[in-house]
């Protein structure tokens, strides 16, 4: 999760350095998008783990 956010923020900072703007929009937008992507990733992983655990419980 932290790696996804760090990569998104790093890319935003680099884009803001290359294409300067008044409010650092690339950093803000890419940070927000990377947080959303990381939350979705974690939720999907949790669901997959829970499904796997439930299938083991009912297989006996």
UniProtKB/TrEMBL annotation:
It comes from Gaetbulibacter jejuensis. Keywords: Membrane, Transmembrane, Transmembrane helix. This is Uncharacterized protein. It comes from the Bacteria. Pfam families: ATPase_gene1 (PF09527). The chain crosses the membrane at residues 25-43.
């Amino acid at each position: 999760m932290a790696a996804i956010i760090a990569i998104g923020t790093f890319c935003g900072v680099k884009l803001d350095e290359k294409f300067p703007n008044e409010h650092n929009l690339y950093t803000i937008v890419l940070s927000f998008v990377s947080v959303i992507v990381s939350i979705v990733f974690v939720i999907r992983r949790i669901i997959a783990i829970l499904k796997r655990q439930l299938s083991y419980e009912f297989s006996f």
